[in-house]
Write a structure and sequence with these properties.
Strand 1 and strand 2 form a beta hairpin. The chain has a domain of 79 residues: Lipocalin (Beta Barrel), CATH 2.40.128. The chain starts with 15 loop residues before the first helix and ends with a strand. The protein has an 8-stranded antiparallel barrel. By secondary structure, the protein is mainly beta. The longest helix is centred in the N-terminal third of the chain and has 8 residues. About 16% of the residues have low confidence. 11% of the residues are buried.
Length: 121
């Protein structure tokens, strides 16, 4: 009986949260534990302002009109585009269409491995 061998290539792209959930045996967004709490929702007003990394290498300005401007030390072209607040996260979309997730946690922003604090702090 002849059989055919078809190669299957999976091009799934996973973010860090998905990979961590797989490694820990859970699912992304799963509520673990007996007392599930309501997810915290961040409003746009909570993130508006200037944010900086402690070492000064990253600066992010989130404006009230839904636009942002960012600077990264060593990068020639400043980042700019629009942002959208989504639950506990902010999604930056630059002029080229690239999307960057920013997580809001304990009064800080976490973006691409950088912790950003309000510039006045």
């Amino acid at each position: 009986m002849p059989t055919t061998c078809e190669t299957h290539v999976d091009f799934t792209v996973l973010d860090a949260a998905s990979l961590l959930a797989i490694a820990l045996g859970g699912t992304v967004g799963a509520q673990n534990g007996p007392a599930a709490t309501r997810p915290r929702v961040v409003t746009g007003a909570a993130v508006v302002g200037v944010w900086r990394s402690p070492d000064g290498t990253v600066k992010l300005q989130l404006r009230r009109d839904g636009t942002y401007a960012g600077e990264v030390a060593g990068r020639r072209r400043p980042a700019r585009g629009t942002y959208l607040v989504d639950g506990e996260s902010v999604v930056l979309r630059d002029d080229s269409g690239l999307q960057t997730p920013v997580h809001v946690h304990d009064g800080e922003l976490e973006m691409a491995g950088h912790r950003l604090r309000p510039a006045g702090v």
